[in-house]
């Protein structure tokens, strides 16, 4: 039976909030061991796990990761949806999802070549399971969401009442689609779309700046509340750039700089790097173990384990240890990584 998409976060026990996993089952098993959980998810201190979403895509075994999380949630732990799970629910074939979508597998066969391919039965089981998950969790002291706690979008999602994620997503998408033709950029978008579609996956194409395609992406990110909170806010990019399998004209916006609430928020999604001296992700002006935002009460617990696939490519120059799976231990404010290292969070 459907439940609300914004649900209660446990407040009667300490929590371990786990970042994006992206199919990396070995990293997940290692992290759980370092955290002190047994194979059934029991912990001697009665701790509870909370997974921030993006269990799937890119890694070696998304099926095993989902099965593990389902086993854990069946035994009292918690998980929310990330944008990659929402992509599966509405059939959006994004980069790294060839384990699930056959057509996508052909597109990326020279990049993601070592993942387990899901059977039809496994696909059905995965869809049925993730469609039971919420989009966010909260209690009076803490909020957990995949990408962005946006009060106006949260209000719209709450207003749906008891509803499953697939149905809710479709309703929001239908409304946004129906209204897109009334937007001032729509005629120009129609004119640009065919050209963009022809070249959007060609990384070496000299892509011009297509402002209406960018406006289309910004609109659908803003008009769809579930997209907004699972992907975050965006802004127009200075120039086209190629990322995650296609050309783009919008870039991520650090929404935490405008977050005014006192309640802390834990997020994933943003591919933070564990390197105090050299961080390529310009979203983050703080060090990797520091809180973010105007009130220093937003923390991103995604440390890019989803990029581990790069180390498996022939002649790769990437070092596996720079990509980590992380858990935020609350209320202790400690980070624990899949390699066993720990770090105290500062600046709260």
Strand order of the largest sheet: 4-3-2-11-12-13
Low-confidence runs: none
> What is the succession of H and E elements?
EEHEHEHHHEEHHHHHEEEEEEE
Main sheet overview: 6 strands, mixed
Number of helices: 10
Mean pLDDT: 94
* Count of beta strands: 13
Structural class per helix/strand content? alpha/beta
**Percent range for helical residues?**
25-40%
Rg calc: 20 Å
Q: Outline, from the CA principal axes?
A: globular
Beta-strand portion reads: 15-25%
* End-to-end distance: 39 Å
What do you see in this structure?
- The protein is of the alpha/beta class and 348 residues long.
- Helix 2 (62-74) crosses helix 5 (120-130) and helix 8 (186-199) crosses helix 9 (211-223).
- It contains 10 helices and 13 strands.
- The longest helix has 15 residues, at 165-179.
- It has helices at residues 25-35, 62-74, 83-89, 102-107, 120-130, 151-158, 165-179, 186-199, 211-223, 225-231; strands spanning 6-8, 15-18, 48-51, 78-79, 136-138, 143-145, 234-243, 246-252, 265-267, 298-300, 326-330, 334-337, 342-344.
- Helix content is 30%, strand content 16%.
- The model has no long low-confidence stretch (mean pLDDT 94).
